[in-house]
Every structure is written in C-alpha cells, then in structure tokens.
Amino acid sequence: MNEALPDVPEVRVVGLPQLTSGFDLVERLDLPMHLKVHGPLEPLGGEQLAQLSERINLRGRGGAGFPFHKKLRSVAEAAIKRGVRPVVVVNGSEDEPACRKDTVLINRAPHLILDGALLCAEAMGARTLVIGVTRESTQRSMEAALAERGLNNGRRSALRARVQRNPVRMVTGAAASLIRSIDGGPAIPPGRKVSASRSGVGGAPTLLSNAETFAQLAIAARIGPERYGNTGLYDEPGTVMLTVSGAVARPMVIEVPTGVPLRYVLQLAGAPPVPQGVLTGGYHGKWIDSATVDEAIISRNSLQQVGGALGAGAILPISQETCPLGESLRVAQWLAEESAGQCGPCYLGLPAAARGMEDILNGGGPAALEAVKQVAKNVKRRGACSHPDGSAMFLESTVKAFTDDLAAHVLGNGCGRPVEGVLPLFEGGKAPTGIPGGGGQEEGPSRQRIYVDWTLCRGHGLCADLLPEVFQLGADGFPTVAQADVPRLAEAKAVRAVRRCPALALRIEEDTRGQSPSSRTNLPVLSQGRGRRALGR
C-alpha cells in the first residue's frame, strides 16, 4: 500500500527553476538566502499588479483557477467603495492527502509567498495579513519567516501579520472555512455563499488565494511579464507545481513549465509505462484513461480538453494490476468522512454515493450503478461549499473512465484484481480497518497525542464512540480529558475521530516528549546576517 506523503517529499524541476530556485543550496531559504537567490523586490501599484497578473494570465493555483487580476480589482473596488482597508489571506491549508506543493513552498521558500502577499497588501493599503495553515511544519516555517521580517509583532510594521492554524481536514481549506476560522469561528463553511472579495475577514473585502499563486506573482514581479512569458505556453505561461504520487516509484513535488507532456512527468516519478488511468487534479479532480495519457500536456486547457483537470496540481497514476473501482471506493469513503456534517447533500449524499460504489463492487448490478449516478447528480450545486461538487465530479469521472471494469463488476463477477491502496489517504499511511486496502497497525509506545479544543467542542460525543480507548464522556456530555496519548493500535481510529468531529474540535500532534533535541525536526538556525530587506520591513 502506498504510504502517506511526507510534508516535504522529494522535489524535482524540469528546465530552469523559478519557484524552486535555491532548493539545491539549502533545505529552507531564510530571508538572507532568499534575497541572495531572488534579489530585492520593488513595490508596485494596485493597477500595475492587476495588469501584470492579466498579462501573464495568472490564475489561482488552489483548484478553482479564478483569474487573479479580476480578484485583485474586485477587492480594491469594494474597499474603495466602502472606505475600508482590505485584508490579504494566504491559503496554505492544502488538506488533501495527495497534495504537497503548497506545503513544500511554505516549508522551503516561505519568503517567496510572503513577497507576493506583501506586494498585494502594500498596493491595496491592507494592514492585516493572515496565513492559513494546518500542519505543524508549515506553522513553524511561516512563523519563523514572519519573525525574520520583523512582522511577528506590531511594533516594527504598520502591517499586522499572523499565522492561523486549523485542523487538517478537507473542508478546512475552503475559502469560507478559513475566513470563518480567522474571525474566531470553527473552520467549516458558514452555510451561505458570500464573496470574500466583498465581505471576508471581519466583513472587510478580502484578497484570498493559495500559497503558490502569491509565489508566482512574486516571480513575475521580479522578472517582468516578457521574461515570465518565455517559459511555458503562450496562453498559459510560467511553471506549475505538481504533486505526483499513486503508483509511482518516487512520490515527488515537481516544478514544470506548462506544455510538458504528462507522460514525461509520469516517467520522472517512475510510474508504470502503461498506467490503467491517471487521476488529475486530486480527489476533486477527474480520471483520464490510459489511451488519453499520451495526448495530455501539463496545462489547464489541455487537461480539460482530454477530460482531465489541473485542479490543485495532483497527478496520481494507477497500474494495470489494481482494481480502479476499488481504489476509487477508498477515496469516495474518505470524501464522505470529510463532510462538515451541516448540509444534506454532503452529510447524507456522499455516504450514499460511497455505499452505492460499494454495492457495485459487491455485485449490485445495474441498479447500483444507476443509484450512484443519481446521487452524484443530486448533490451537485446544492451544498454549503464546493466539497459535494468536487466529490460528485470525482465519482462521475470514475464511472466514465473505467467502463470495462464497471461492466465486469455490474454485469459479471468483478475484474478479479486486488485493491492495493495506492492512492494516499490517511496520515501515517494507514487506512482504518474495514476499508479496502487497509491494514492493521503495529504495537508499541504512543507516537501521538490528541487534543480537545474547548473553544470549539459542542459535546456531540462522537469522539467517545469512535475512540473509546481515549475518550469517555462526563456527566455533562463532554470529554473528560483535554489531551491524551493515543495508543499505537488506535492511531487510525484517532485519525477517524479527528476527521469526523462535527465541530473540528480535535487535533493530533506527534508526541516529541522524551526525544533528544537532535532527533526532533526543527527549522534551520535562522541567519542573523544583514542584507537588503524585502517588502514588509
């Protein structure tokens, strides 16, 4: 079974590096090294930034692909009209198990992201910058980067900058969830769709985009649109950060110019010569079959034309030796568990779709297939966030891409191939018992601690049902402990409890007590050398 991806997997580059410049020199570019590699950055006016973004056709790299120049202008116009200062938010959540590109950038090149965010903040007169993360490593790296710029306190800059840490969960990365958490609420969608450009953090117009988007803006601002356009395709210039995993010999994050053949990217990661299919765009993305792989190149338009999606930049091939429907069932079950539990299409529809997929695998026949199609159709455009839409797109793509296997399961006795669990799903690489491809867990001392956030806990009691080894409920219906060691054998159940908590009140952290300082993963010692400061001083 494919193990879960580390926070910072192997990083490769095709052609000349842009976002990954300096990665061959150090593990993490602190501020002095960042300035040596990338050079200083001069401020730009708001309209200059918008025109730059438009000329390079910069689109959001978090999945939706919204034109960045339109977002910039919309926020600026709303702020001017209302006479308030806007807010800038960097979304570095990246809570999908198959995505690590933003996590890599935050861990290894945090100042490139801050460059782009600070350019926007200065151009629009913003005085608040928030970076949303979900991992301990990204929190440490970004907080260190803010400290290196003197932005970790309110005394050295008019800009207030901070890191917002949220639980690792699929819905946490939604823009509305991040904004709600910044305002002090739970990191779940609010149940109503409001444009962040008009009313975001604290009700102010908010410029929110993902980490790679801001980093791309910083590169373009330094080298200019002409030089930026010399890399990649004419209509989609520049590079793209991809996370390649699944049935590959070497899972990696790779920076490639647009226009590179998908086949070449797969070869770099050691994918099968003839994959059975490739999931493009991640778990809210689309499958393309083996016959289509040779036609695809890395670009948003090309992947759409062959039935795929660039999405969040995740590329996951599977081999001919595994059951594609079984692999997709594992993802469908995970997507169902990621529901925030507050709207019917998500809370009821996605589990029903997963059960329908399981019925197909168990010989449910044409009726089971039609049930899956109907559920996928019913959940679209009816949820409080995009999670049901993305999940439905994944299910519909699975049914469309693997027609031969579908026929074998619907009309026959199945395809006869095992489920190898090659698509990464769970932290620690273990799938809970009972899910195809799952395995048992080793015994031994605890490696994790689970925490209850009392500001979020609402006493639903689900944690005690899912993880009785740790949680019991008191007379008031709330857990009796605020933190506890997780038994090694219960680690998978603890992950399930964290993901299923309706209030997102649980989190898991690695237990480093008793480890020697040298055995812990820490940031490199921050350089104290002097040099020209980037924007934000």
From TrEMBL:
GO biological process: cellular respiration
Cofactor: FMN; [4Fe-4S] cluster
Pfam families: Complex1_51K, Fer4_15, NADH_4Fe-4S, SLBB
Bias type Polar residues, positions: 514-525
Region feature Disordered, mapped onto this chain: 510-537
InterPro entries attached to this UniProt entry: ComplexI_51kDa_subunit, Nuo51_FMN-bd, Nuo51_FMN-bd_sf, Nuop51_4Fe4S-bd, Nuop51_4Fe4S-bd_sf, Soluble_ligand-bd
UniProt keywords, alphabetically: 4Fe-4S, Flavoprotein, FMN, Iron, Iron-sulfur, Metal-binding
Domain NADH-ubiquinone oxidoreductase 51kDa subunit iron-sulphur binding: start-end pairs: 325-369
Molecular function via GO: 4 iron, 4 sulfur cluster binding; metal ion binding; NADH dehydrogenase activity
Family as reported in the entry's similarity comment: Belongs to the complex I 51 kDa subunit family.
PANTHER family for the chain: NADH DEHYDROGENASE [UBIQUINONE] FLAVOPROTEIN 1, MITOCHONDRIAL, NADH-UBIQUINONE OXIDOREDUCTASE FLAVOPROTEIN 1 NDUFV1
Protein name in UniProt: Ferredoxin
Source species: Streptomyces tagetis
